[in-house]
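Lecture 7, part 2: worked example. A protein chain together with NAP.
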Amino acid sequence: MKILLVGTGRVAFHLGHAMVGANHHLIGVVGRNTEHTDRLSKALGTVSFSLKEALPQTDIILIAVSDDAIADVALNIPISDAVLIHTSGASDLDKLLPHPDRAVLWPLMSLSPGEPMDFKHVPIVVDGNTDRARQVVRYLAESLSVQVSELNHQQRELVHAAAAISLNFPLHLLARAQDLLKDQNIDPAILLPSFLAMAQKATAIGASEALTGPARRGDLGTIHHHLDRLTADAELRAAYARLSSMILRAYGHPDHGHTDV
Ligand SMILES: NC(=O)c1ccc[n+]([C@@H]2O[C@H](COP(=O)([O-])OP(=O)(O)OC[C@H]3O[C@@H](n4cnc5c(N)ncnc54)[C@H](OP(=O)(O)O)[C@@H]3O)[C@@H](O)[C@H]2O)c1
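Predicted complex, written out as structure tokens:
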């Protein structure tokens, strides 16, 4: 099957390399910025197209652009036999209207600039509005990863929210915790080995079992000392108190309302 890749950002970069690695016939990269488009098409050994020019006939058009741009980009692509696929976990298939065969291929992974990622164990969520769209997107996803699942839009929204909680929040809290140390000229990297070990332990024994710390133990005294240390940052102090309260209750400790600010 011939594939046209629309987009030149992080997902286009990683999926593009994964598709080339899986020996797919990538017939071109389509973008709005010539420099970005040429750079990616060259790296993938294919050719560039502008979003404004006529596009070649293809079996799949994979649209990896920002969520807010998907509908506009799809609307400006002439209707053909191609299956249109977007890569957004937060977007429904209607964003690809009026194309008849619409699908999603959502890699459940935080993709950043750097070396191309090995997609083999990246979970990929797929869905389609017709049997043909579902078949095509599943075929493509299974050629890239061994972890492919089919979820409808409501389920994808829930997974997207769960991913935001489990990925974005810990990283933001890590950054805020490192800022506290930087302010006191303490090396923020001191937190990193335990952060890494935490993810490994959660994978090995489960998140609930891996959790340690004063709230899990029910050490209210230590929690109050920490809260006293955080008076300069009311927002972080409130987050600390609320999360401690959630953990205390989850592990069967009374928090007497002291930490729930
Ligand atoms: N990054 C992740 O971790 C991740 C993971 C899974 C799924 N996704 C999904 O994948 C999609 C792409 O995300 P990304 O992280 O690759 O984004 P990104 O790195 O910010 O790249 C966005 C791409 O969209 C293009 N674009 C933005 N507005 C446009 C417009 N109005 N018209 C045409 N092109 C436009 C940009 O073009 P220019 O180069 O010209 O700016 C760029 O190529 C999104 O739907 C996102 O939800 C992302």
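Residues 2-151 form a domain with the Rossmann fold fold (CATH 3.40.50.720). Residues 7-12, 31-33, 36, 51, 64-67, 69, 72-73, 87-89, 106-107, 110-111 surround NAP (CB under 6 Å). Keep this in mind for problem set question 3.
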